[in-house]
Specification:
single chain; 503 residues; Rossmann fold; GMP Synthetase, Chain A, domain 3; 9-stranded mixed sheet; 5-stranded parallel sheet
């Protein structure tokens, strides 16, 4: 099996069943598959062939979905990228991936309109053709609807997803069809995906969780995909109520913002069977707030890395009562988990170690980075860089990223622990803790703080008083810097490397 053949199969099985729903139209599986053949036909005429790379710069639209499947139907590699990336970031990916084509959408075309077009790359945009950019619709209309057979095996390469680049240039993560189908199958079973389900997509389909865990899993069983180009609390609530969706994946902030909506009571959310979040944990108070506001006991947490498919662990609804903030106690279907020390040996329970994951969902490797691949993949295990411990009940708790650990006076300090303590201060709107060089101690703990309102007196004395009862004295920051906002990338991830560089 391969990903394009999943779609072809569902078009034969459920030709009139709704495959895609957009704000403007409803598209059957048969029409979806026909459009993919037409686009693939035109792309083939333009020279796209097996092994080529096509960068897809689009929000959650039918055009993105058509392109993702059409590129792979030709044996080429799809590279969906975040629609909010800057022109510089987009061109880095186009150049690094050796792309033969860049496809953009008129909703985000302004971000690439000023590009200097390069020889050897074909440029395509939705809407009319424009200054060297071909028209997506014209290609779609001109393509043949004849069936294009896809003979790829599960071991053939399917796509490249670029990581967020929080510690440097983004890395290209190469997936095979087997990698993606493995994690899609996991969600189908762990979260009971069936043809009658309706999957809401509001998080960017350039990210592995929305794309692999929900778009591909829904297609795996012939479910309906409801596409919304962007997220707002209004759109989330309106779409769930109108389309009676059953599955949704979102970042914690999406839940918290929607749960605070002033007119939440006006929306019927009872159709939802799986409210799934990932990317960061939710503590007990936030979980209880979301459950109360949404009137649900169907909140699921998924943990995993892009490089793992993503796959990793699951925290189920009934476990949130006592274990909110953890990532669960068992690995997901088709995945194994261990905590290991610096030598790759398992650590004792309650001791902190690095999370390593094993399974066929793991990436093939990093594109054009063999040494980095060897560092990350060892004997089938993916070294995640996440440090965690397992409590007496077997639940895993992530304490920090390995690269973010501060070593002061030979002692390991986990910034996330300090950040959580600082967030309990009512005047802290945002905070990041890093280690900065110190000639005597190796590193000193420094906090970058975004305040809700100006603070009277010295921050050092103020926070020392506040933190004394919450963390050990050696963990309390010695240095503070007030900021208007913390640096984040297009996906909202904190760029601690920028903070270290300016310290």
């Amino acid at each position: 099996m391969n990903i394009p053949n999943l779609l072809a199969m569902q078009a034969r099985k459920y030709p009139e069943h709704e495959g895609l729903v957009t704000p403007y139209e409803r598209i059957s599986y048969a029409a979806w598959d026909k459009a993919v053949n037409q686009l693939a036909s035109s792309l083939s005429d333009m020279g796209i062939a097996k092994g080529d790379k096509v960068v897809i710069h689009m929000p959650n639209t039918k055009e993105l979905v058509y392109a993702y499947f059409a590129v792979q139907r030709l044996g080429a590699l799809s590279i969906p990228i975040n629609a909010k990336l800057s022109q510089k970031e987009i061109m880095y990916i186009v150049d690094h991936s050796d792309a033969k084509m860049l496809m953009s959408h008129e909703l985000v075309f302004r971000q690439v309109e000023a590009l200097e077009l390069e020889e050897g790359i074909t440029y395509v945009k939705t809407g009319p053709s424009h200054k060297g950019w071909e028209s997506y619709e014209e290609l779609l209309d001109a393509g043949s609807p004849d069936v294009i057979e896809c003979h790829l095996t599960e071991d053939d390469e399917a796509s490249i997803l670029y990581t967020s680049g929080t510690t440097g240039a983004p890395k290209g993560v190469v997936f095979t069809h087997r990698s993606i189908l493995t994690v899609a199958q996991m969600i189908c079973i762990e979260m009971t995906m069936r043809p009658e389900n309706r999957v809401l997509h509001m998080m960017p389909l350039s990210h592995s969780a929305p794309l692999h865990l929900f778009l591909i899993s829904g297609t795996y069983v012939g479910a309906t995909h409801v596409l919304v180009p962007t997220f707002t609390p209004d759109l989330l609530l309106e779409t769930v109520a109108k389309e009676r969706t059953t599955h949704f994946f979102g970042a914690p902030i999406a839940y918290l913002a929607s749960a605070s909506h002033e007119k939440l009571e006006a929306y019927d959310l009872s159709s939802m069977q799986y409210w799934v979040y990932g990317g960061a944990p939710l503590d007990q108070s936030k979980v209880e707030f979301i459950q109360k506001q949404f009137k649900t006991d169907s909140l699921y947490c998924v943990y995993g890395l892009t490089e793992a498919g993503p796959s990793g662990t699951l925290l189920f609804p009934e476990e949130h009562r006592n274990k909110s903030g953890s990532i669960g106690k068992r690995a997901a279907l088709n995945c194994e988990i261990q905590l290991v020390d610096e030598n790759g040996q398992p650590v004792a329970q309650v001791e902190t170690g690095e999370i390593v994951l094993k399974g066929e969902g793991n990436m093939k490797g990093y594109y054009k980075a063999d040494e980095l691949t060897k560092e990350s993949l060892k004997d089938g295990w993916l070294y995640t860089g996440d440090m965690a411990y397992q409590d007496a009940d077997g639940y895993y708790w992530v304490v920090d990223r390995k690269k973010d650990i501060i070593i002061s006076g030979g002692v390991n300090i986990f910034p996330q622990e300090i950040e959580k303590a600082m967030f309990t201060h009512p005047n802290v709107d945002d905070v990041a803790v890093v280690g900065v060089p110190n000639p005597d101690w190796g590193e000193t703990v420094k906090a970058f703080v975004v305040l809700r309102e100006p603070m009277d007196g010295d921050m050092t004395d103020h926070f020392k008083t506040h933190l004394t009862e919450l963390v050990a004295d050696f963990k309390i920051p010695r240095l503070y810097e007030e900021m208007e906002a913390l640096p984040r990338n297009a996906t909202g991830k904190l760029l601690k490397s920028h903070l270290r560089d300016q310290s």
